[in-house]
Each structure stands twice: as C-alpha cells, then as structure tokens.
Give the backbone structure.
Amino acid sequence: MSKEIERKFVVKSSLEEVLGKETLETLDCSRIEQFYTVITEEKEIRFRKKEKNGVKQFYKTIKSGGTLVREEVETEIAEKEYNRNLENKIGNKIIKERYLYNNLEIDMYEGGIGFFIIEIEFGDEEEAKEFVLPKEFCPFIEITYDKRWKNKNIALKGVPSV
C-alpha cells in the first residue's frame, strides 16, 4: 500500500478563461469515466477507464483513510474486469476531462458548468502544507477537507454547489 497525499481546490471560473484558449489546446488531456463498487466512510473501491488519443486504460483502485493523507493501491486491469464490475456500481458514473498543467491535475466534470477542480499530489505532508496554488487560479476554495467534494460522494449525491 502506498500513501496518497493530496490537496484539492475548486475554481469558480472556466479553465479557458484562466489559462487562455491557446494554452488549453496544448495541454495533455484525458477523458475519465469512473464508478465505485464499495463506498463506506473509511474505504472505497473505484474502477476507472482513462482514454487518451484513442488509447484506453483501465484501473482498479482501493483507497482508505481520511482527507489529506490516504492509503491507496491502484492496479491496471483488463477492460473485461472493468465491464464486469460496472454491473455492481454504487451511485452514478462520474465522467470528467483531466488536463495536466505543470504538476496540477485539473478536472472538468460533465455537468459541472462554471468551475473546475485542481488536485495536487505531494511526496510528504510538509510539502503539501507549504504548497501555494499559483495566482492565476485565484480566487479559489480549498476543498481538501470537505467530504462533499470526494469523488465517492459526488457519485452518490452529485456535484455540490460552489
């Protein structure tokens, strides 16, 4: 098991407005579809399909723990396993586009008009605590500790209001 140390922010604006159309067109982008088969307060099992340039990859991820620091085990799986588990999904499938900008993962959720989510993973807690989001993303709201914005809760209850 490895530790995932991650902070999350919501920016109430369009990504094109913040970065500009020219920059946005140059970013690495993937389409992600994911669903859950186990959702409890302390554990989640997620299946994800990631598509980039026509290439599909499938993953199973088990996460446990809190907010800033969690345990995570991710393994690549076959499409057949992904489809088989889809029959047992809990809640809704989440669909989003993920852009990579420097060390930031920027997610635009289907149906989430007018905002985007930034996720940043860190090597240790000290690095996470010292991180300052680049000024081009201001104003923002940190949602690291807001459980409504956990993807498992978005699958159950939908995207929260900003």
Remarks:
- Residues 42 and 66 are 7 Å apart (CA to CA).
- The domain at 2-157 is CATH 2.40.320.10 (Hypothetical Protein Pfu-838710-001).
